[in-house]
Each structure stands twice: as C-alpha cells, then as structure tokens.
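User: I'm preparing a small set of examples for a lab meeting where we compare how different chains pack in three dimensions. I only have the primary sequence for this one, and I'd like the structure in token form so I can line it up with the others. Please keep the answer compact; I'll paste it straight into my notes.
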Amino acid sequence: MARNFQFSVGEYYHVYNRGVDKRVVFTSDADKVRFQKLLFLCNSTKIVHLSELTDQHKGEDIYKLDRETRLVDIGLYAIMDNHFHLLLKELRENGISLFMQKLMTAYTMYFNILNDRTGALFQGRFKAKHVQNDAHLKYLFAYIHLNVRDLFGSPNIQKIASYKYSSLADYLHTNARRSSAVLSLKNFPDYFKTHQDRLDELSEWLDYGSEDNFKVEP
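Assistant: Understood. Below is the structure token output for the 218-residue chain.
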C-alpha cells in the first residue's frame, strides 16, 4: 500500500489500483473517457472543479485548460475494466500522493452519483512501486500497455494499438488525440528509435506473455 510509501522528487513510479472486491469500475467507454479527462484535470495544484467536466462545451475543451503548476509527469497509462496502471514522475514533494487522492476521489464521486451508490470504489488508496533502473522503465512500456490484452479474445498488436484508453496510440502517433495532453512524453526516456521498434518490442512481450512470467515485475 502507498500509505507508508516514501516518494522522491525526480523519481519514477509505477502506480496502480483496482476496484474494491475486484469489481468493474469502468463500465462503459464514457467512464474511461471521464478517467482520461481526470488524469489531465487532477494533475494540477489548482482545486478540481467537476463542473468543468459536466459542462458540455468545457468538457470538449478540457485538454486546453491552463493547469498552472503540475504535480506529476505522466509517461504511460492504461485503463481496463476493473483496474488501471500509471507511470508517474514526482515533480514536487507529495505530488504523487496529492494527484492520486484528487484523481480517485473525483472519479469515485462521479461513479457513485451515476450509479446511485455510496462508499469506497477502489481497493485502498493506491499501490506504487519505485522504478529501479532503465531496464525496469523499459519493461513497463510493455507491461502497462499489454495489460489491455485481456480485453480481447485473441489479442494481437493491431488490436492493442487501436485501444483508445491507453497511451500506446500517443507513442505510435497513429492519430492526433486531444487526450495526448495527459502525457509528458519528453520527460521520459525513449528507448526506441522508430515506431516499428516499439511494436516489435510489444510483439515479443505479447508472445512471452502467454506465460505467467510476464505478470511478475522485476
């Protein structure tokens, strides 16, 4: 659990959480879009105003809002039905903790109102692992993006690359997306010279991922 986790400014962390009792917390595309927008909006020292998301016009332009001071850099993300993964870099003291508190509180409020429920939605605060070295950081590019493979009956790289609710499309530049504003790509190491190199790396891990070893982080 991250409650006693000590974060350091300038360091990278794999942050993740799942629904309480492993329940589905993203029940529709609209839920995943909302979470994407919150990844952007909550990454600020400013107070989150949920009206900026409920207003139709502002909702469309959410990624153009001035956030002033960011709390973290976001390098990777993937949103599945019952959990999510993020790769974060702490920009200021307590930045990750504050960002995650804002993110999960805002999404839980949205989900509970929408589904007429009360109480916790996620399994505790969140979990985090310190990224130890370049090998671990490169591994997370595959680990996080390939998490979505379980959403497809017969996963292949083309299906995974087309998934809208992860950062992979932004790395492959397959299309221009408003949601690319969530990421700070220039502030993370790039271990691949071409998009094909990225796809080849994912293909190798996808084949290897048929074994349980893929699910064990270094």
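A couple of notes for your slides: The CA atoms of residues 108 and 114 lie 10 Å apart. The mean pLDDT is 87.

User: Perfect, thanks.
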